[in-house]
Design goal:
The protein has nine helices and no strands. By secondary structure, it is an all-alpha fold.
Length: 272
Amino acid sequence: MAALKKALAEAEDKAAKERAAREKHEARVGEVQQELQDAVKKYESLERDSKTQGSELAKARQSAQDARAEAQSALQEIQAAKKIAAGKAFIMQSKSVKETFLLLTRIWSSPGAFTDLPRSVSDAAEFYRAEEGSSTEKLFWSQYLGPEHPVPFSDQLKQLVELHKAAELAMKELIVRLWPAAPIPSSYFGLVKRLVDACPRLEVIKRSVCIEGARMAFARVKTHWAKMDAKKLMTEGPPEGKEHRRPELYFDGVLEGSRLVAEQCAKDVIFP
């Protein structure tokens, strides 16, 4: 009986040790599994970071390439523009290209821009110097009065911009006078295009002014001579026996009255 109890105790002790060892092994397996999961997550995170860094690096590389290309293009424009400003021959290689050398294409299209620039700058400086008071324009042009050294290319571009501003204001004022009821073009090219029709428009205005003055004069005559037929008066000659009475003989005598008629005319009516 004692031997049986001893054997049973030994078996229980062995089973307890085996159970403890198994639990310890299972705990270690759990730890290893957790370490493996952590390692997998860390690897995936590093892989994502690597891809992100690679993408950012590729973007940075592309941005650097674009900036380098833009800088080279700008440098070529400046060098080519300096040739134009110096009066050297220049072939616009990108004349048919829309997105390159846009500024130089405009300058190239006006070959006399830099040739006339010194004279225009001198005229503008003298004009604003003679003006009384102080203004932004007077301050700007005063710095170019009799320069002792060549004007930098950047300053020449500023001078061109200011001259174009002055030309734009002059064109707008003229267009308002010629087309008082029409909207002012919103672009510089629109102003130039509108002024192409200035000469025909002037003819229309001169004709309308003549009609308006004659209308006022005939209306005044009608107040004293109600039966007067203006059309008959203009199409028929003098009465019989008075052929010597030609209109030009009376120009001086009616000039003062004509000036009064001009003052009473609105001069803003366009007759068809």
